[in-house]
Design goal:
By secondary structure, the chain is an alpha+beta fold. Helices cover about 30% and strands about 30% of the residues. The chain has a single domain, classed as Deoxyribonuclease I, Chain A (4-Layer Sandwich). It is built from eight helices and 14 strands.
Length: about 400
């Protein structure tokens, strides 16, 4: 058996000091030092074999955090692990106390295609850190080879030919990083993503300095709702692009783990697009797609085939598998305005589902690091600027 851990870590705007990432937002040297210190402690505590990072503006800043984590790991190991002169050095507890540095780990960074390095207009990318290295070259998915047109059909009852329009997507808001990681006798495909946020997309008129909806002194509730609609459509379209990549990997026979900041809960439409459909208990009661009579229903054999086809490409929430196993009823990775929810996700293909007989492994434990989170309506919320406004999630996996 081979055990490993995999984590998702939205760091919230990692960039070097005195560099304006968003308009008028940057870290002083002291603030950056605090953030680097906090991140190194989080990495050291998680001690994950595979880590997916979101909101990385600069690879160098991330490497500096990893180097600091390694330094602390070596200091900690020197203080807590007995040397060969100690007769008790073989106790199991010392294997648990040991922290493995990332000296020999591989790092893949996917910069944002929209980031031109202009101060105040930066755009973040994502990264994956792996103690097992990578098989093949990591792949970045953001600029689509062909524009994605999503057509809408007219509703019934509309007379004559109707053009219901379409939504066109040229580029994802942030890259999806796809890596293949060798673990034990398996090669696991890992996707790290950061989907479009719920922050509304408001269109700035030509020659204007800002979109009218951004002027809160002239609050436009309907216009701001339209901005939220645009953001939701974009997020769901990005989820569909990711879904296509997932299905291709599973159909090629690869175990898949998808992680990252989905900016939505597990039951949101965008998350359900990524995970795939949940099959009905029985399709034999359902009218066939080509029914010619009331009793034209799927056979028992066809019902089983449909269920198998859906299950084969379906993903499962690591959080929900853990809740089912542990009886814990609340996990959250985000807290804002009195709302506590999980928007950072780890989804597993059925290769890791405990009920799947041909599984290659399964999750044994699930951890959430959220003690640093503060509700955005509280006075202490500015702390999140230097730490992260996301909790980190960590899955403990065991291969058979």
């Amino acid at each position: 058996m081979t055990d490993f851990t995999i984590a998702s870590f939205n760091v919230k705007n990692l960039i070097g000091p005195d560099k304006e990432y968003y308009e008028f937002q940057k870290y002083t040297p002291e603030e950056y030092a605090w953030k680097e210190d906090w991140m190194a402690n989080q990495l050291l505590t998680m001690d994950a074999d595979i880590v997916g990072f979101q909101e990385i503006f600069e690879e160098d800043a991330l490497r500096a955090v990893i180097d600091e984590t390694d330094r602390r790991a070596e200091v900690l190991n020197a203080a807590t692990l007995p040397d060969k002169s100690k007769s008790y050095r073989r106790k199991v507890i010392f294997r648990k106390l040991a922290v493995e540095p990332y000296r020999d780990a591989a790092l893949a960074f996917a910069p944002n295609s929209a980031d031109e390095g202009v101060p105040g207009q930066r755009r973040p990318g994502v990264a994956v850190l792996s103690r097992f290295g990578f098989v093949e070259k990591p792949e970045m998915i953001q600029d689509l080879p062909q524009p994605l047109d999503i057509p809408f059909q007219p509703l019934r009852g509309l007379g004559g030919p109707q053009d219901a329009g379409f939504y066109r997507l040229h580029r994802l808001s942030r890259p999806i990083l796809k890596v293949r990681i060798p673990v034990g006798d398996q090669v696991i495909t890992v996707f790290n993503c950061h989907l479009k946020s719920k922050l509304g997309e408001h269109i700035r008129p030509k020659d204007a300095n800002y979109a009218p909806e951004e002027d809160l002194t002239h609050y436009d509730p309907v216009g701001r709702a339209l901005g939220s609609l645009r953001a939701a459509v974009r997020r769901m379209a990005e989820a569909w692009v990711l879904r296509g990549e997932i299905v291709r990997e599973i159909k090629s026979g690869h175990p898949v783990i998808v992680m990252g900041d989905f900016n939505d809960g597990e039951h949101a439409v965008s998350s359900e697009i990524i995970a795939g459909e949940v099959p009905f208990k029985n399709y034999a009661w359902m009218l066939r797609h080509d029914a010619k009579a009331p009793n034209d229903r799927y056979s028992a054999e066809q019902s089983q085939q449909i269920t198998d086809d859906i299950e084969r490409v379906r993903l499962h929430s690591a959080e929900k598998l853990f809740v089912r196993k542990s009886l814990r009823d609340m996990v959250y990775t985000s807290a804002f305005g009195g709302v506590f929810e999980s928007i950072d996700q780890l989804f597993l293909s059925r290769h890791f589902h405990p009920d799947y007989e041909a599984r290659v492994g399964e999750m044994t434990y699930f951890s959430v690091f959220n003690d640093h989170l503060t509700d955005g309506s509280h006075p202490e919320a500015p702390y999140n600027k230097l730490a992260s406004d996301h909790g980190q999630i960590l899955a403990h996996m065991s291969l058979r």
